[in-house]
Amino acid sequence: MRKLRVVIAKPGLDGHDRGAKVIARALRDAGMEVIYTGLRQTPEQIAAAALQEDADVIGLSILSGAHNHIAPRLMELLRSKGLDDVLVVVGGIIPNVDIPKLKEIGVKGVFLPGTPMQDIIDFITDNARARAV
Amino acid sequence: MKTVAETDKQRWERDTLAPALAKSPERPQPFTTISGRPIERLYTWDDLAGIDGAREIAQPGEFPYTRGIHPTGYRGKLWTMRQFAGFGTPEDTNERYKTLLRAGGTGLSVAFDLPTLMGRDPDHELSLGEVGKCGVNVTSLADMETLFAGIDLGGITTSMTINSPAAMIFAMYLVVAEKQGADWRALSGTIQNDILKEFIAQKEYIFPPRPSMRIISDIFAFCLREVPRWNTISVSGYHIREAGATALQELAFTLRDGIEYVQWGIDAGLDVDAFAPRMSFFFNAHSDFFEEIAKYRAARKLWARAMRERFAARSERSWKLRFHSQTAGVSLTAQQPYNNVVRTALQALSAVLGGTNSLHTNSLDEALALPTAETATLALRTQQIIAHESGVAHVVDPLGGSYFIEKLTQTMEDEAAGYFEQIDRMGGMVAAIERGFPQQEIAESAYRFQQAVERKEKVIVGVNEFVQSDEPPVEILYIDESASEKQLAKLERLRQTRDHDAVERSLEALRAAARTTANVMPPILDAVRAYATVGEMCDALRGVWGEYEEVPVI
User: Fold this and answer.
1) Angle at A75 between CA B549 and CA A72, to 5 degrees
2) What tens digit of pLDDT does each residue of A68-102 get?
3) For residue A132, is it within any domain?
4) Are A13 and B552 within 8 A, CB to CB?
5) Confidence (pTM)
6) Residue A72 sits in a domain of what CATH number?
7) Domains and CATH numbers, chain B
8) Distance CA B325, CA B338 (A)
9) What is the ipTM score, two decimals?
10) Nearest residue of B to residue A95 by CA position?
11) What's the domain range around A117?
12) A114 and B334: CB-CB below 8 Å?
């Protein structure tokens, strides 16, 4: 089986990329292939990157409060591109009341500040399926 | 045979320490600061042996200002308690400001939302979901008028955290002041206006580094003539630290940024002693108590020396580093949020003992959301308790002469000077940024810290130790979509009611100025008066200068 391929994306206008970069390195050190999109990606660009990179996982880093707009749009785009099986996780500052809403639209994991990196690595390893080559 | 005289510290280690350690060893953890700096168990006068006290420590109000820039410390005037606030619509934030001023706040500090910070109007594609979320949305002069309605701009000082569109937002503030009848020459406040740390850490950049630096030099020159009491830049280590830098990296990169701005000002033909006194700094107040205090003291020394020796500044006002500080947002935890009150109090105390000139204390709920009015008030109360109850403000630089503090101050100054040399060799800070040097250094430190936390070498109470599963939730400020809807509606009305031709003419004049070396402030003021939006003004400049895109590295 090939390595899990993970797209780490930073959508919206926010530039605080410490979390995105730290988790990208942690996943890479855990043996995954990590593609970091860089800043200010629209949901369209993220979905396109996932398709192009043949991603098994998309990790969104959102701290600005824009998750209620960005996540639904991305999930819709993934469906339309036939990428429903890509595991989508979100990390950042997400109010508790919004977590069920994100889960409902298909975001599988929501990781809040203080989550150990190992928990995120384990979650991805347990829930993502590497696509056949 | 030649023998080296034994120091008293060595004697103590032999006579007293060794038997004690034999009986009961120390805890096994590495004793390091939060930045990973090894710390000795004891500092004595032997550690100060190589330090020339008169030259390196001196006295308060005297070069190199290790002990502070004021001879009377806080006995003359306490630090300014300046609480950063902004959310939702200008109406929402105006109300919060009035609350803070009533509670005894002594200055305002504006937090703008991401569309404003990035020079995008609320109807831009990338503003989706961001309007009013992380700060207040200000699209045009009309919003600025609302933001300060009923607040006398001639009577307070205002700090505005704005960088890429600093010229536009500052112009709006000036026009509101003018409409209130205030004299620009008497206005005082600060714009952050520090683009270098955006490229390094916070990433709220729009234009490429060189035209961005040119706007800053233009603002320096404009203020010199028109708004002489305004602090034209707040050179910021805060965001560099939040992005993961060590205390030393924060110190070195921030001070080197300051040097870069001075160099650009001089290169633009300005007299160093005319503009340098209006520069100020902004540091993080992080959790490692003594390292932070040493950092502030080292910063004053580094600046004084850079100004006097490197730039041959003659005015004492150019030598004195004034700084704002803010407690470390990144240290706040979502878990057991009430613990954050204690963290913030300790951090604030370190800033005060380090001689901060103004201070923002974070609220307990800021790892979860923007603060509520109640938690923001509690944060202000924390400062008032330090100022009025603890007694620490009675004596000037109370930690001066501490073996540990003085040694650490000297070490940090020397190590920062080493970073300066490295950056100078690269051709300066703009060149260093273009090759990704500070960005890479910070990313490394951030990752190393996270690994230390995972290994529990660094304990975060409530996160990797002393975890509690039955936490009662705290009530947070939830910003819904209504702010966005209101701002979108206002923008639509504005576009219908303003003089369309005047807007177009003013934007064309701005583009024309950008193509030459003319100062961009006058055409920006004209565009603001015509109610051009932040997005329109920034777009005009994007058209001339292009946009910066960084190469993402992990």
Assistant:
1) 85
2) 999 999 999 999 999 999 999 999 999 999 999 99
3) no
4) no
5) 0.95
6) 3.40.50.280
7) 64-454 (3.20.20.240), 485-545 (no CATH)
8) 22
9) 0.93
10) B368
11) 5-127
12) yes
